[in-house]
Amino acid sequence: MSVQAQPPIALLRALGVSAVDVARGFGRVVVLLVQATVLGLKEPGGLQAAVRQAIIITSRCALPVALVVGPVGAMMALQSLTLMRTFGVERQLAPLAAAVVIRELAPGFASVVVAMQGGAAIAAELATMRLAEELDALEVMGLEPRGLIAGPRILGAAVAGPLLNTLAIVSGITGSYLMAVVVLGVPHTVFVESLPEGINPSDLITSQLKTMVFGAGLGAICASAGFSSERSTAGVGAAANKAVVTSVVFVLVSNYLLNTALFGLRGGG
After folding, report:
1. Spatial distance between the Cα atoms of 226 and 172, rounded to a whole number of angstroms
2. Are 47 and 41 in contact (CB under 8 A)?
3. What CA–CA distance (Å, rounded) separates 153 from 161?
4. Is 231 strand, coil or helix?
5. Beta carbons of 165 and 107 less than 8 angstroms apart
6. pLDDT at position 258, please?
């Protein structure tokens, strides 16, 4: 009897250990997010450093965001128009494209690109500083690495999110326009005149706020991965990989939960 009960117990024990590890990691990220943000704002020149980091992250991710969201918007227009022409409602293509891009495609893809491009750089930079004992040197000098190093990067990611989201919205709608009007022959006036029907100010605000939350969260995740990395060259790569994977999962899960909370009970209307 005990032999048969052992495997389920071992499985439950393994699941419990994994759950505890996830909870501890989540706690570390939340603590780092709060402490680094507060300390970063208190540091002399903290806001200027955050702005510099936002510019760096935006410049790194701008082209990838445009190249990802633009074609996705075009493919969405291609697939949607095929069905809409069947029912004679192709005028609804532009409002649909605007709504989907603003609510889903732009904030989701922009944040994922920030995680893969900017987040990996944050984790690798901090892991390299840990390997070179630069973080230890700051503590010896009485400086706080969380506020001096992590804070500006987290705040910069939070600011870069809405900026890149704006670029993603423009790229997605432009891709839809080019596919619909230039390639598939939808009249220019029909697309342009119906486009505002899908643009809701509250959706725009929500979209920007989502990317700000995603940016701050993935910035904290990547900074935490860098701070906790192993002191080796392999540890630098492992930290960057862990940061990207965790950040992408965070963005996708958070996006689903937020959309469910916002639109789930009314079907996105």
Report:
1. 33
2. yes
3. 12
4. coil
5. yes
6. 84
Domain segments of the chain: what residues? 36-256
For residues 168 and 71, give the distance between their C-alpha atoms in angstroms, rounded to a whole number. Answer: 11
CB atoms inside a 10 Å sphere around CB 4 = 7
Instruction: Tell me the whole-structure pTM to 2 decimals.
Output: 0.85
The pLDDT tens digits for 140-177 are 887 888 888 999 999 999 999 999 999 999 999 999 99
Distance CA 136, CA 120 (A): 22
Give the model's pLDDT for residue 230.
Answer: 87
Burial class for 251, CB neighbours closer than 10 Å (0-12, 13-18, 19+) = buried
Residue 44 gets the label, from left (phi > 0), alpha (psi -120 to 50) or beta, of beta
- DSSP H helical segments within 195-232, as ranges? 201-227
pLDDT digits (tens, 9 = 90+) for 208-258: 999 999 999 999 999 999 988 888 888 888 999 989 999 999 999 988 888
| Residue 156 to residue 195: CA distance in whole angstroms | 32
Q: Identify the burial level of 65 via C-beta atoms within 10 angstroms of its C-beta, where 0-12 means exposed, 13-18 middle and 19 or more buried.
A: buried
Q: Tell me the C-alpha to C-alpha distance, in Å, between residue 247 and each of 59, 68, 69, 196, 224.
A: 19, 18, 19, 33, 11
Nearest CA to 123 among 227, 262, 268, 231? 227
Q: Is 229 helix (H, G, I), strand (E, B) or coil?
A: coil
Q: What does the pLDDT read at residue 269?
A: 52
